[in-house]
Amino acid sequence: MLRFFTLMMFLFPAVSYGQDSDLGNWLIYLGNKKINNKVNWHNEAQYRNYNAVGDLEQLLLRTGIGYNLTENNNNVLLGYGYILSQNYIPGSDDKVDINEHRIFQQFITRQSIGIVKVQHRYRFEQRFIEDNFRLRFRYFLALNIPLNNKEMSDGTYYLSSYNEIFINDDGNRFDRNRLYGGLGYKLNKYVRFELGYMNQFLANGSRDQINIIAFVNL
Question: Left, alpha or beta for 8 (phi > 0: left; psi -120 to 50: alpha)?
Fold first, then answer.
C-alpha cells in the first residue's frame, strides 16, 4: 500500500497547473453501509477542483437507500443529491454559484468474466437546477482486473476502467462522456483506494481530471 501512495505523491504535481493546463483534481469518497442482507445505505462526497486543491469547481453530496434483488449482483436504489457548482464567468476571474437538487433512481448489475469484474449501472435523474428542471439518463460500464491475485482479495492491486455516457431529455441530447483508467489497491474487505485519470468529453470541448477515490463498505 505504501507504494500506491508513493505513486499518488509523484502524480500530484501534475495537477498543480490549474486552469492553464485544463487539468483538475477530484477527491472522491464512496461509502456503502449494509443494513441487512437486502437493504443498503449509499453515501458519497466529491470535492472537485479546477486545479490540485483549493479552486472549487463542484461539491457533490449524494445519498440513497438500495435494495438487493439478488445477493450482491443486482441492486436498485432511490437517492438524492445536492450539487454546488462554482462556474467561472467568461473573461473574468469571478465565479457564480449554481445550486442543484437531484433525485435519482438506479439499477446496478455485476458479473464476472474470468478474472474480470464487470459492473453496469443505469441511472435516471430528475434535476432541479436553480429555477430549471431537467431529466437525464446515464449508462456506466466499469471493469476491474486484479493484478497480483486471481481474485479481489485483501492486498490486491488492480486495474480499473470505466466509460459513462450522459443523455439529456431535450436540447442537446448529448451531455457528456467520461472515460477513466486507474490503478487500485484493495486494503481489506472494507476499504479500497484508486488513483486514476479521467477525460470528460463535453458537447463544446473536453476536460481532464486526476481522480483520487476511497471506497468504504461496512
Answer: alpha
